[in-house]
Structures are given as structure tokens and as C-alpha cells.
Amino acid sequence: MTEIAHKSGCDGAGCSCGEIRLAEPSGWTEDTRNRLKAGVAGEWVAFEIQAVEDIAAALAEIDRLREKKRGAYEERARVVAALSKVFPSHLARHPDEDKDWDDDWRWIVCVHLPTGQATWHIHDSQEALFSHLQNAPNHWDGHTTEEKHQRLEALPKGGGGW
After folding, report:
1. DSSP letter at 100?
2. Confidence band (pLDDT; 50, 70, 90) for 2?
3. Which DSSP letter does residue 7 get?
4. Please, are residues 92 and 130 in contact by the beta-carbon 8 Å criterion?
5. Which of 139, 96, 135, 98 is nearest to 119 (CA)?
6. Is the pLDDT of residue 1 over 60?
7. pLDDT for 89-148, tens place per residue?
8. What kind and span of H or E run contains 91?
9. Quick one: average pLDDT of 61-81?
10. Is 13 helix (H, G, I), strand (E, B) or coil?
């Protein structure tokens, strides 16, 4: 695997070297090293340009995937908001002492289905979708995600009369 390293002599802290080079992969041959050191036919410059292009492409792909993930969470939040308007529901906070959760994911939507409780963590940025709900103490019944899915699947067809 190729790793990113700073210009020789730069410790990377408060970097002002203005240059990033790729650290040499372990599989390079002596011939490859020599050709790059000698700059044969501009290979070093071409290598640096390609590396920068590869990094830029990877960063663009990361941004695209993050946006796709954000969109999926936004859609999920809207579906949960709709459920919370149909069934008795409230907001609760995940305990602060549990450090496994990021602080901006501590809001919990608790929906009381006829088949049992279902809860979802939502991001702080989605809280406005749930402004119709009151805050209440956290009383999670210990259900797993699988149990939540079973409770959703067990809902009666046809809206149960509503």
C-alpha cells in the first residue's frame, strides 16, 4: 500500500513544506528507484502529477459517498418522522456517559407501535423534523435492531384501521 509522506526533513506538524510526496511502496525495484531519482523522461514529475490526481479522485469519491450516506440518513429520518405522527412517540436523549455514541447522534426517537417499542438515533441536524414531539425520559426496552425490524414487519396491513 502506498502511504502519503511529507517532503524530506518536514515533521508534518504545522507543515509548511508545501509539498507532499508518496512514500515508496515496498514492492518497488531498485531499477524503479533509480529511474525516479534520475528523473528519466520526467517520470518523477509524471508520478507526482498522477499521485495528486489519484488523491483528488479518491477525495472526490469520499465526498460523493458521504453525501450519499447523508441522503440515506435524511430519508430514513423523514420516514421515522412520519411514523412518529401516526403512533404515540417522543424524543429522548441517549445517556451522556455512554461514549460509544457521537454527541451529535444522541437524540432518540421512540415510537410506541402496537407491536412494541421502536427507536432510532437521529442526527442533531434532523431534530427539526421531530419538533412535533415532546421530550421524555429515555425508557428503551432493550430491543435489538432485529427485534425492531420484526415489530415493524408485524404491523397489520392496511394501516390497522387508521
Report:
1. T
2. very low
3. P
4. no
5. 139
6. no
7. 999 999 989 888 888 999 999 999 999 999 999 999 999 999 999 999 999 999 999 999
8. strand 89-93
9. 95
10. coil
- Domain spans, the chain: 80-157
Q: How far apart are CA 70 and CA 78, in angstroms?
A: 12
Other C-beta atoms closer than 10 Å to the C-beta of 119 total 19
CB count within 10 Å of CB 70 equals: 12
The type of residue at 52 is V
Look up residue 159 and give its DSSP letter: G
Cell numbers 508534518 correspond to what residue? Answer: 12
Q: Return the SS3 of 4.
A: strand
Q: Hey, is 79 helix, strand or coil?
A: helix
Q: Are 134 and 91 in contact (CB under 8 A)?
A: yes
92 in Cβ contact with 137 (< 8 Å): yes
Cell numbers representing residue 95 in the block: 445517556
Q: What is the per-residue pLDDT for 140? A: 94
* Distance, CA of 24 to CA of 5 (rounded, Å): 9
Segment 82-95 mean pLDDT = 96
* Residue position matching grid coordinates 411514523: 83
Q: What share of the chain is helix, strand, coil (3-state, %, to 5)?
A: 50, 15, 35
Rg (CA), the chain: 26
